[in-house]
Design brief:
This protein is an all-alpha fold. It contains three helices and no strands.
Length: 111
């Protein structure tokens, strides 16, 4: 005797996923990406401020990763609900490019 509708475990929601679906996993990945990419950039030859420069790079990388996570999560949950792999990678590249352009523009405007 099988039920008409499959029953979900008690901790699962029956509501459709919203715009922040899976945001935790996306955020961890983007923060790690932003941190690794920024920390492995070279710094100036001034040996006295290497750790200050690396700390600044790490903070900017975490900020970049957080911005990418927000943009990617919203785009992935709105534009790729069936989770097609090619579309996910297209959104990843587009997110990185868009956020990078905004970051470079802001940094160049601030001087």
């Amino acid at each position: 005797m099988s039920p008409a509708a499959p029953s979900l475990p008690p901790h699962w929601s029956s509501e459709p996923p919203g715009p922040w679906y899976r945001w935790r996993g996306y955020t961890v990945r983007w923060l790690l990406f932003g941190l690794v990419v920024s920390v492995f950039q070279p710094v100036a030859d001034n040996a006295a401020s290497v750790w200050v420069d690396k700390t600044y790079q790490a903070l900017v990388g975490l900020l970049f990763g957080a911005a990418c996570a927000v943009v990617f999560t919203l785009a992935e949950n709105r534009l790729n609900t069936p989770r097609l792999r090619w579309k996910t990678w297209l959104i990843v590249v587009g997110t990185w490019l868009a956020v990078k352009v905004v970051f470079v523009s802001v940094v160049s405007a601030l001087g």
